[in-house]
Every structure is written in C-alpha cells, then in structure tokens.
Amino acid sequence: MSSHITIAKQSSYFLIGNVFTLVVGFAFQVYLARVLGAEGLGTFGLIESSIAIATAILGLGIAPTVLRFLPAHIRKKETGKARALIRKGLIYLFWVGAGGMLFVLLLTPLITKLVPQLQGYEAEIRWMALMIPLGLLIFCCSQILRGFMDIRYFVIANSFVRLIAKVVATIGLFYIGYGLIGYVWAVVISSIVALLWLLFGVRKYLRNLSIEDQAPKSTPSEWKAYAKVMYGNSMLMFWANPLQRFAAAAFVDNSAVGVLMIAQTLFSLPAMFLQMFLSIAAPMLSAAHANENKEEIAHLYHMTTDWLVRLSFPLLLFLACFAHDVLLYFGEKFADEGTRLLQLLLVAQLVNTVCGPLGNVLNMCGLEKEKFRATILSTIVGAIILLIGTKFLGLVGVGLGIVSTIFLGNLFSLLIARRKMGLSWWDVRFKKWLLPMLVCVISTVAVNLLSSGPIDALSLIALLIGVYVLFHGIHLLLGIHEDDQMILDAVRRKLGVVK
Predict the structure, then answer these.
(1) CA distance 81 to 69
(2) For the whole model, what pTM was predicted?
C-alpha cells in the first residue's frame, strides 16, 4: 500500500477520534472549569505537574525507543528483537513506576513544603501518585501500537475509552459531592481502564510475533544510545513544562494556573492534527530510514505538512479571532485573563503547524543527537524569557516564553534537516495555501470587527464551519494534487463508484 493511501486510511481513524475529543472534551473542559473554578483547576494542574516530573525522570526514554526501533525490526523480520524490546520495556516501566509511586507517597509532606500552594491537598497528591506507573505504561503501550501501525486501536483507547470513562466518573463523583478529590479519582479510574484496553492490544501483537528468531542476549547498543538521547529530551521537558505552571503560581496565583491550563487546552486543539500525523508518520519514517529511502522521507514530510496546514489553519484562525468569545464559556475570569495568552500560544502553534512533523523526521532518521542539542538551546532561552516575562507581565510572559521555545526549536530543526539530510521545507504544493489563507484572514477579521457583544455558541460553530468551507473551497478551485487525487480514486474504488 502506498504511503499516501496508508496515511489517509490511518488519518480517518484519527480524524473520527479527534472530532469526538473536540466535541466531548471541549464540553467536559467547560463543565470542569465551571465546577472547580480557576483556583481548583490550577491546584490540580500543580499536582499533575509534580507527578509529571516524577514520570519523566523514571521513563528513561524507553517508550520513544520502542517507537523508533520496533517498525525497523518488524520490517527486517527481527522478531526476537521486537519481542525483547516490548517485554523488557514494559517490565522495567512497571517496576520503576511502582517504586516511584511509593517514593512520592513517602515524600508527600516534603512536596507540600516545597510547593506551599499544595498544602492541604495531601490526599490528592497521594492518589495522583498512582499516575506514575499508569502514565509510564500507557505511554509505552501507545508507542508499541503505533510501532505496529495499529492506529485504530490506539485511537479507540485514548480518544474514546479513556475520555468516556473520565467524563462518566467525574460527573458521577461530582454529583455525590466530591470536588477536586473526585476529579483525581476519575483521572486514575479512566487511566486504569485505558491501560487494560491497551495491554489487551499489545498482547495480541506479541502472540503473533514469530518465536523462531531468538531475542538478543544483551540490550543492543543502538537501543541504549537512542534511549539516552530521548531521556535527555524528557529531562529537559520535565522541568520546562511544569515550569510554566509553577511560574504562574509563584508570580501570580493558583487561579492563573487554571487560566493557563484552559488556554493550553484550546491551544492544543489544532495540535490534535499534528499529533495525528506524528503518530502515523513516525513508524513510516523509521521504516523508510531503515531502507535508506531519502525520497520517501521527503515525500512523507511534504505530504503530511501540506495536509496538516490545510486541516489546522482554519481552526487556528477561528480561535485567534474569537478567543475572548470562546473563553467566556469557561467563565469571565478565563476570558479576561486568558485572551492575550491564548492568542500568543496560537502564534506558536501556527509555527509548529507550518513546520510540520520536522522533529519526528530528525528523531526517526538518526539525527536525534543534533535535535537534542537544538532542544537544549531553545528550551534554555525560552525558560529565561518565561521567568522574566512572567515576573513582569504575568500570563503574557508565559506565552512569550512558549512562543520563543517553539520558534527557536523549529528554526534549528529546519537548519539541521537542510544541512544533514538535504531536506528542504518548501514544496511547490504549498503555493496553494496562500490565497485561501488570505481570503479567510480578511473575512474572519471583518466578521470579528463587525460583531457586537458576545457571540452565542451556535453562531460560533457556524463561523468555524464557514472558515473551513471557505478555505477548502478556494483550495479545491486551485486544483487537486496528485496525492489527493490518488486517495479520491482509492475511495471511489472502495465504494464501487469506479472499477
């Protein structure tokens, strides 16, 4: 099956999951923000960040290593190595995660002393400690399924099973009177349900791997080398990401963390499409690199970047223009304090979108060390800007720090890809973005300027649909790329329209 057909088929599963997450997840976030308020949501965010630090320290780059090498071992029929990679990874993460959980349980009093904003929330911290082994295993199982290219099972687990379990458990626990602790329980319950689902899928693939090929007696050196680099990346992220929340709490207050979390939730909506293509393209890039097929790597990169921009730009534009109206549904405090922050974050997301799955290209094609060095520099610069900016500008400073990190990270990645791989960002198909973008920007800004007062939910939905229709309508009039045409032909054959 050709790469564009494979990506299109897998993308359809992701698209269904993303639509469900967008509708149900957005409504759930509004409900959660209204029940817990900015301060309650911010407190949960600080607890979650504390647990995320422990999870990042204990992961040791195992899950990314599974994704990097599993497709290559399967392509080369090295089933012994594939089995060893999966089993060793899961066993290690289980035991180290359990140890980390016990460690946090014992150190909860120290955590509340180090983070005064968490004093009085010792029970919530102890329950959230369960997320250390759960988070490690869920992430690893997800990468295993991605390595086997089973995107459908992966999407069902994360977009449907986990979200539905969380929503049902949260509403039920809130109804009987539990507040923040009830939401913590709901997060743990939904994670257990999702992990059981994922483990069942992993078990199915392990059974199908041939046992004729023997597993290596010792851990291959290439696994260790890649895991070290990925662990370095996670060690950067383990303090860089929580730093945003802790800086907001230290320089503003807990409610600012809640506003930041909602802004990041909306910021992440267009990123669903990026994650969709990252999940699909990563194992394909790894397989193409194993075959030393540079043309296929470039084709995958340009094709996924093109589709990513076309899917994401209308949503990015809509959220940027109507940020205040959308945030109002979470509460006035979120709208008053989060509008400028959200708009800054969307600038960063636009940079991510236009650059496409560039980081994955480097990591999957043997340039993970160069990517790591670029990440170190961009993260340090971004962290300095974030701390200084938050001190003097509050949440806007957080946004400036995030924009700086993402912009520099993508710039350095573009330079590395150009010098080391001869991979150019530009492709002639990108010309067709320009006219739809221009028309949509002018139209959306005009509607925003002409509107008076808050816009109701139905009108916002209609506007979002309108931006998508306008963008893709103009793009369609400019002609269909051969990749798109081949997908349409495949769909027609599937439906029996053509022979």
Answers:
(1) 9
(2) 0.75
